[in-house]
Specification:
This protein is 14% helix and 38% strand. The chain is mainly beta and 259 residues long. It has a single domain, classed as Jelly Rolls, CATH 2.60.120.260.
Length: 259
């Protein structure tokens, strides 16, 4: 087992142990890939089956013809897939290129949705179960930039979290490093527990990923790459005895009126 994978397993086991010690023993944990960025239609919305598209948006002072976003085939984090994966041509990453005319707390938003171009419609990605952790891979160029994840819970409240690195707990959200690194977010318990009483309705949705530049850092031209976004989630609610009686489809069938 490669060192990076072994480290991820150790961190994951430690995290799971802490969950089991803090909550009841009825967890049904599962690791689910949300987005691979292996191509144009590499992931789909769980509620509609539509392909997930990504739009990139710059804040004030964004330079002309920026930002840009593109799917890049034949690239991958070696620590994730190794030097010689079985099907390298099937792998890919998401590339983002930005530039600003002024230094400052500039923001670059990566927004999921449907459609493309003028027909793009933002749409948060529903995440199955009660999400415990989110992790992803990001390529940094040693610029003093930060990344934040925006989530919406089942009550419509927005939560903003900064990820940390698996290999060292440096400043939260910082991507001031060279090359690929794995970063993660532990979803606080109070957010996980804001669920609806109706099973099958996602407790958390990913609204957007935001990159922020430090006021003293260069912003004339920069690149960021992303790969393999996944969640560790508790799917216990989807398998309890009588689950089907709580599903929206079954409720509509049972309580149809006028017949």
């Amino acid at each position: 087992m490669k060192r990076s994978n072994l480290l991820s397993v150790i961190v994951l086991l430690t995290f799971v142990s802490s969950i089991l010690g803090a909550q009841d023993m009825g967890l049904l944990l599962e690791s689910l890939v949300v987005e691979t960025w292996d191509g144009e239609d590499s992931a789909f919305f769980s509620d509609t089956g539509e392909p997930i598209k990504w739009d990139v948006r710059g804040s004030k002072y964004t330079a002309e013809n920026r930002p840009q976003v593109v799917n890049i085939s034949g690239e991958w984090p070696v620590d994730l897939f190794g030097h010689k994966p079985e099907e390298p041509e099937s792998l890919g990453i998401l590339g983002i290129r930005g530039a600003y005319d002024r230094q400052g707390y500039n923001q670059l938003e990566l927004v999921p949705g449907t459609g493309s171009g003028n027909n793009f419609v933002p749409k948060a990605i529903p995440l199955k179960g009660r999400v415990q952790m989110v992790d992803f891979w990001v390529w940094g160029a040693n610029y003093n930039y930060y990344v934040e994840f925006y989530f919406r819970d089942s009550k419509g409240l927005t939560h903003v979290f900064s990820p940390v690195r698996f290999d060292q707990r440096q400043e939260a959200g910082s991507i001031r490093f060279l090359g690929w690194k794995n970063m993660y977010i532990n979803i606080p318990r109070n957010v996980r527990l804001t669920e609806n009483n109706r099973a099958g309705i996602p407790n958390l949705s990913l609204v957007k990923i935001v990159f922020i530049t430090h006021p003293e850092e260069i912003v004339a031209d920069f690149h960021v790459y992303l790969d393999h976004l996944r969640i560790l989630t508790d799917k216990r609610e989807e398998f309890y005895d009588g689950f089907d009686l709580s599903s929206p489809q079954r409720i509509d069938e049972i309580w149809e009126t006028g017949e």
